[in-house]
Design goal:
By secondary structure, the protein is of the alpha+beta class. It has one domain: Aminopeptidase. It is built from six helices and eight strands; from the N terminus they run αββαααβββαβαββ. An eight-stranded mixed sheet has the order 1-2-3-4-5-6-8-7. A hairpin with a 2-residue loop joins strand 3 and strand 4. Helix 2 packs antiparallel against helix 3.
Length: about 230
Protein backbone atom coordinates (compact mmCIF):
# COMPACT_ATOMS: atom_id res chain seq x y z
CA UNK A 1 0.00 0.00 0.00
CA UNK A 2 2.82 2.36 0.75
CA UNK A 3 6.56 2.27 0.64
CA UNK A 4 8.89 1.47 3.51
CA UNK A 5 11.23 3.91 5.18
CA UNK A 6 14.97 3.72 4.66
CA UNK A 7 15.61 4.33 8.37
CA UNK A 8 16.43 8.06 8.15
CA UNK A 9 18.37 9.43 11.10
CA UNK A 10 15.51 11.73 12.19
CA UNK A 11 13.26 8.68 12.56
CA UNK A 12 15.77 6.90 14.75
CA UNK A 13 15.99 10.02 16.88
CA UNK A 14 12.23 10.06 17.49
CA UNK A 15 12.12 6.57 19.02
CA UNK A 16 11.10 8.04 22.34
CA UNK A 17 8.37 10.03 20.64
CA UNK A 18 6.92 6.90 19.09
CA UNK A 19 6.76 4.96 22.34
CA UNK A 20 3.19 3.95 22.95
CA UNK A 21 1.61 4.48 26.37
CA UNK A 22 0.14 0.98 26.46
CA UNK A 23 2.02 -1.97 24.93
CA UNK A 24 -1.11 -3.76 23.78
CA UNK A 25 -4.49 -2.26 22.97
CA UNK A 26 -7.46 -4.58 22.58
CA UNK A 27 -9.97 -3.39 19.99
CA UNK A 28 -13.72 -3.66 20.52
CA UNK A 29 -14.98 -6.10 17.92
CA UNK A 30 -18.31 -5.94 16.17
CA UNK A 31 -20.22 -9.24 16.40
CA UNK A 32 -19.31 -11.61 13.61
CA UNK A 33 -22.13 -13.07 11.53
CA UNK A 34 -19.98 -15.41 9.43
CA UNK A 35 -21.18 -19.02 9.54
CA UNK A 36 -17.77 -20.65 9.22
CA UNK A 37 -14.17 -19.85 10.18
CA UNK A 38 -12.05 -18.01 7.68
CA UNK A 39 -8.78 -18.29 9.58
CA UNK A 40 -7.59 -21.79 10.42
CA UNK A 41 -5.08 -22.91 13.02
CA UNK A 42 -6.17 -20.38 15.62
CA UNK A 43 -5.52 -21.17 19.24
CA UNK A 44 -8.48 -21.77 21.58
CA UNK A 45 -9.38 -19.06 24.02
CA UNK A 46 -8.79 -16.25 21.53
CA UNK A 47 -8.49 -12.72 22.86
CA UNK A 48 -9.57 -11.13 19.58
CA UNK A 49 -7.85 -8.28 17.78
CA UNK A 50 -5.17 -6.23 19.52
CA UNK A 51 -2.47 -3.73 18.56
CA UNK A 52 1.10 -3.90 19.83
CA UNK A 53 4.57 -2.64 18.93
CA UNK A 54 6.51 -4.75 16.44
CA UNK A 55 9.77 -6.42 17.47
CA UNK A 56 13.13 -6.73 15.76
CA UNK A 57 12.64 -10.50 15.53
CA UNK A 58 9.60 -10.03 13.27
CA UNK A 59 11.44 -8.30 10.41
CA UNK A 60 11.33 -11.31 8.08
CA UNK A 61 7.77 -12.25 9.04
CA UNK A 62 6.47 -8.73 8.41
CA UNK A 63 8.39 -8.49 5.14
CA UNK A 64 6.70 -11.65 3.88
CA UNK A 65 3.32 -10.35 5.07
CA UNK A 66 3.88 -7.14 3.08
CA UNK A 67 4.74 -9.12 -0.06
CA UNK A 68 1.64 -11.32 0.34
CA UNK A 69 -0.49 -8.23 0.80
CA UNK A 70 1.01 -6.58 -2.29
CA UNK A 71 0.48 -9.78 -4.26
CA UNK A 72 -3.23 -9.78 -3.38
CA UNK A 73 -3.71 -7.13 -6.06
CA UNK A 74 -2.74 -9.64 -8.75
CA UNK A 75 0.81 -8.50 -9.41
CA UNK A 76 3.12 -11.04 -11.05
CA UNK A 77 5.85 -12.82 -9.13
CA UNK A 78 8.50 -10.96 -11.12
CA UNK A 79 6.87 -7.63 -10.20
CA UNK A 80 6.84 -8.59 -6.53
CA UNK A 81 10.48 -9.61 -6.62
CA UNK A 82 11.32 -6.23 -8.10
CA UNK A 83 9.55 -4.63 -5.14
CA UNK A 84 11.10 -6.94 -2.54
CA UNK A 85 13.99 -4.67 -1.57
CA UNK A 86 11.63 -1.74 -1.05
CA UNK A 87 9.27 -3.85 1.07
CA UNK A 88 11.99 -5.47 3.18
CA UNK A 89 12.03 -4.41 6.83
CA UNK A 90 15.25 -4.38 8.80
CA UNK A 91 15.13 -5.41 12.47
CA UNK A 92 15.39 -1.72 13.42
CA UNK A 93 12.46 -0.76 11.16
CA UNK A 94 10.37 -3.69 12.40
CA UNK A 95 10.69 -2.28 15.92
CA UNK A 96 9.03 0.94 14.75
CA UNK A 97 5.93 -0.78 13.40
CA UNK A 98 2.56 -1.28 15.04
CA UNK A 99 1.22 -4.80 14.53
CA UNK A 100 -2.41 -5.91 14.53
CA UNK A 101 -2.67 -9.44 15.80
CA UNK A 102 -5.64 -11.78 15.87
CA UNK A 103 -5.43 -14.60 18.39
CA UNK A 104 -1.68 -14.00 18.59
CA UNK A 105 -1.14 -14.12 14.80
CA UNK A 106 0.04 -10.96 12.96
CA UNK A 107 -2.79 -9.84 10.68
CA UNK A 108 -1.27 -6.57 9.47
CA UNK A 109 0.96 -3.67 10.43
CA UNK A 110 1.73 -0.03 9.75
CA UNK A 111 4.84 2.14 9.88
CA UNK A 112 4.98 5.89 10.49
CA UNK A 113 7.91 8.26 10.17
CA UNK A 114 8.62 11.98 10.09
CA UNK A 115 9.49 13.49 6.72
CA UNK A 116 13.31 13.62 6.66
CA UNK A 117 15.23 16.33 4.81
CA UNK A 118 16.13 15.21 1.32
CA UNK A 119 13.18 12.81 1.09
CA UNK A 120 11.04 12.95 -2.08
CA UNK A 121 8.22 13.84 0.32
CA UNK A 122 10.14 16.70 1.92
CA UNK A 123 8.89 20.27 1.50
CA UNK A 124 8.79 22.66 -0.26
CA UNK A 125 5.88 21.54 -2.43
CA UNK A 126 5.66 24.84 -4.28
CA UNK A 127 4.16 28.26 -3.72
CA UNK A 128 1.19 28.21 -1.39
CA UNK A 129 1.73 24.65 -0.21
CA UNK A 130 0.52 23.91 3.32
CA UNK A 131 2.77 20.84 3.63
CA UNK A 132 5.58 21.23 6.17
CA UNK A 133 7.83 18.79 7.98
CA UNK A 134 6.27 19.83 11.30
CA UNK A 135 2.65 19.46 10.17
CA UNK A 136 2.95 16.28 8.11
CA UNK A 137 4.22 12.80 8.83
CA UNK A 138 4.55 9.86 6.46
CA UNK A 139 2.57 6.63 6.48
CA UNK A 140 5.37 4.55 4.99
CA UNK A 141 3.69 1.16 5.12
CA UNK A 142 0.25 -0.26 5.85
CA UNK A 143 -0.27 -3.88 4.90
CA UNK A 144 -2.91 -6.47 5.80
CA UNK A 145 -2.42 -10.20 5.35
CA UNK A 146 -4.73 -11.31 2.51
CA UNK A 147 -6.57 -13.60 4.90
CA UNK A 148 -7.82 -10.51 6.75
CA UNK A 149 -8.37 -8.11 3.85
CA UNK A 150 -11.96 -6.92 3.91
CA UNK A 151 -12.46 -7.69 7.59
CA UNK A 152 -11.81 -4.19 8.97
CA UNK A 153 -8.26 -4.81 10.16
CA UNK A 154 -6.89 -2.27 7.67
CA UNK A 155 -9.21 0.44 8.92
CA UNK A 156 -8.28 -0.27 12.54
CA UNK A 157 -4.60 0.12 11.61
CA UNK A 158 -5.26 3.33 9.68
CA UNK A 159 -7.27 4.88 12.50
CA UNK A 160 -4.58 3.99 15.03
CA UNK A 161 -1.96 5.53 12.75
CA UNK A 162 -4.03 8.72 12.81
CA UNK A 163 -4.16 8.62 16.59
CA UNK A 164 -0.38 8.26 16.88
CA UNK A 165 0.17 10.96 14.25
CA UNK A 166 -2.02 13.32 16.26
CA UNK A 167 0.08 12.60 19.34
CA UNK A 168 3.14 13.66 17.33
CA UNK A 169 1.42 16.95 16.56
CA UNK A 170 0.97 16.21 12.86
CA UNK A 171 -2.19 17.38 11.11
CA UNK A 172 -1.84 15.16 8.02
CA UNK A 173 -0.14 12.01 6.81
CA UNK A 174 1.41 11.73 3.36
CA UNK A 175 1.06 8.37 1.61
CA UNK A 176 2.80 7.11 -1.52
CA UNK A 177 -0.06 4.74 -2.29
CA UNK A 178 -0.26 1.72 -4.48
CA UNK A 179 -2.74 2.71 -7.21
CA UNK A 180 -4.94 -0.22 -6.19
CA UNK A 181 -5.19 1.08 -2.61
CA UNK A 182 -6.24 4.65 -3.41
CA UNK A 183 -9.94 3.93 -2.92
CA UNK A 184 -9.28 2.51 0.56
CA UNK A 185 -7.58 5.74 1.62
CA UNK A 186 -10.19 7.91 -0.08
CA UNK A 187 -12.87 6.27 2.03
CA UNK A 188 -10.87 7.43 5.05
CA UNK A 189 -10.85 11.00 3.74
CA UNK A 190 -7.55 11.13 1.85
CA UNK A 191 -7.11 13.29 -1.24
CA UNK A 192 -4.54 12.99 -4.01
CA UNK A 193 -2.18 15.98 -4.08
CA UNK A 194 0.39 14.77 -6.59
CA UNK A 195 2.47 11.85 -7.81
CA UNK A 196 5.85 10.36 -6.98
CA UNK A 197 8.06 8.06 -9.04
CA UNK A 198 8.27 4.49 -7.77
CA UNK A 199 11.53 3.56 -6.08
CA UNK A 200 11.21 0.01 -7.46
CA UNK A 201 9.80 0.29 -10.99
CA UNK A 202 11.49 2.85 -13.31
CA UNK A 203 8.97 5.15 -14.93
CA UNK A 204 6.07 4.05 -12.73
CA UNK A 205 4.23 6.85 -10.94
CA UNK A 206 2.49 6.41 -7.61
CA UNK A 207 -0.36 8.58 -6.29
CA UNK A 208 0.70 10.89 -3.48
CA UNK A 209 -2.14 11.19 -0.98
CA UNK A 210 -2.77 13.48 1.97
CA UNK A 211 -4.76 11.97 4.85
CA UNK A 212 -6.09 14.29 7.56
CA UNK A 213 -5.36 13.33 11.14
CA UNK A 214 -8.11 13.21 13.73
CA UNK A 215 -6.78 14.34 17.08
CA UNK A 216 -8.78 12.07 19.34
CA UNK A 217 -7.87 9.88 22.26
CA UNK A 218 -8.13 6.12 22.17
CA UNK A 219 -8.48 4.19 18.94
CA UNK A 220 -10.99 6.54 17.35
CA UNK A 221 -13.92 4.17 17.48
CA UNK A 222 -12.60 1.88 14.77
CA UNK A 223 -14.32 -1.46 14.69
CA UNK A 224 -13.41 -4.63 12.87
CA UNK A 225 -15.43 -7.68 12.03
CA UNK A 226 -13.54 -10.81 11.08
CA UNK A 227 -14.36 -14.48 10.69
CA UNK A 228 -13.04 -16.81 13.35
Amino acid sequence: MSTPAQEPAPFRDMKALSERPTPVRTITMAPSTAPAPRHTGMTPGSDGLSLRPGTCHEAQQLTELALRSKGWWGYSESFLQTCRAELTLSPQTAEQTTVAQVDGHPAGFYLLSPIPPGSPLAPPFGAGSQVTASSHGSLDMLFVDPEFIGTGVGRVLAEDARRVAGAHGWTHLLIESDPQAVEFYRRLGAEQIGERLSASIPGRSLPLLELPVRRTSGVGGARATYWR
